[in-house]
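lol forgot to send this yesterday, sorry. struct tokens for the thing we talked abt
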């Protein structure tokens, strides 16, 4: 698999093959959700935090926004890639569906096809019949109108998450983003410009405070050093949750030849002995032979977080 970091972040490797294991978990109460494995009733997300660090304030605001019969609003979580927007949306989704008695609906809005398929699955979930869905799929009736008609008629109140909406044009073009007296919409996006989100409440998701960033490392790699040592590595990684998660995951996997936080930080600061680095998935990855050892493994955590929001 190719390594990728968003918003100008880069994943580098020093030498040899790069092996990144991505585990995909689907979260839901009891591990069973209505509607099968691709259901919109559960977040279709990758790695979730061991513990969601910091974020108490934004969670409190979001909780208030879906509590006590509040409906008809759109909330937008914006911030750079890897900052933890999806993680916050997911935490709210889990809370709301567990405690508040709302139906949670999760759509990946990263591209047109996925948005459209997800929204039609939402209509199906809310009661649209096969003939209506077929007509919408075939372009014989406006798909967004169908979806929102069923959302407006929903017997249960709902929370609709539109995740990874980094290309808001696709929402606007299909008129997919609306409000409803029956529910709340939560969007995650890297695009903050207010004109994309008229009438919505915007919440910034930024990098973590120093101590929380250190705790993300320690949650994943508790035996590699003190919180202060972890904080120094966290600073070096820009306190970006994605970078911290990759680094913590890397450290926790060095079982036979464990690394400390300090040695990790030193390696990040050291000049690369292999010369100019290659992006993961580039020529170096295609060279034959896995050289093994630390050198090949280090860059799994060598994410250079982007400075730009
Ligand atoms: N507050 C947090 N505490 C701990 N880990 C986090 C936190 N926020 C995000 N992460 C982890 O960082 C990674 C990137 O988060 P994600 O929500 O996918 O970012 P975004 O949606 O902004 O691109 C994920 O592996 C996630 O589990
Ligand atoms: Mg995301």
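and heres what i got for the seq, position by position
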């Amino acid at each position: 698999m190719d390594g990728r970091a968003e918003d100008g972040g880069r994943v580098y490797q020093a030498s040899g093959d790069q092996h990144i294991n991505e585990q995909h978990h689907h979260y839901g109460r009891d591990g069973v959700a209505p509607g099968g494995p691709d259901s919109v009733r559960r977040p279709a997300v990758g790695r979730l935090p061991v513990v969601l660090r910091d974020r108490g304030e934004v969670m409190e605001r979001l909780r208030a926004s879906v509590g006590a019969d509040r409906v008809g609003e759109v909330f937008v979580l914006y911030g750079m890639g890897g900052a933890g927007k999806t993680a916050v949306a997911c935490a709210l989704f889990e809370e709301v569906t567990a405690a508040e008695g709302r139906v949670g609906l999760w759509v990946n809005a990263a591209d047109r096809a996925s948005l459209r398929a997800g929204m039609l699955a939402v209509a199906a979930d809310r009661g649209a019949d096969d003939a209506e869905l077929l007509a919408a799929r075939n372009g014989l009736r406006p798909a967004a109108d169908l979806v929102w008609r069923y959302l407006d008629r929903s017997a249960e109140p709902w929370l609709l998450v539109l995740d990874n909406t980094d290309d808001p044009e696709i929402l606007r073009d299909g008129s997919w983003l609306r409000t409803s007296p029956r529910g709340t919409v939560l969007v995650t996006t890297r695009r903050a410009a207010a004109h994309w989100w008229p009438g919505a409440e915007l919440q910034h998701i930024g990098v973590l405070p120093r101590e929380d960033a250190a705790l993300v490392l320690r949650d994943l790699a508790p035996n590699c050093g003190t919180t202060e040592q972890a904080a120094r590595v966290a600073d070096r990684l820009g306190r970006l949750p994605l970078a911290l998660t990759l680094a913590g995951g890397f450290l926790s996997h060095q079982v036979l030849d464990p690394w400390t936080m300090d040695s990790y930080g030193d390696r990040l600061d050291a000049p690369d002995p292999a010369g100019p680095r290659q992006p993961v998935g580039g020529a170096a990855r295609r060279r034959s032979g896995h050289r093994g050892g630390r050198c090949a493994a280090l860059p799994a955590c060598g994410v250079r977080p982007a400075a730009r929001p």
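The first strand starts at residue 10 and ends at 13. anyway ping me if u want another try
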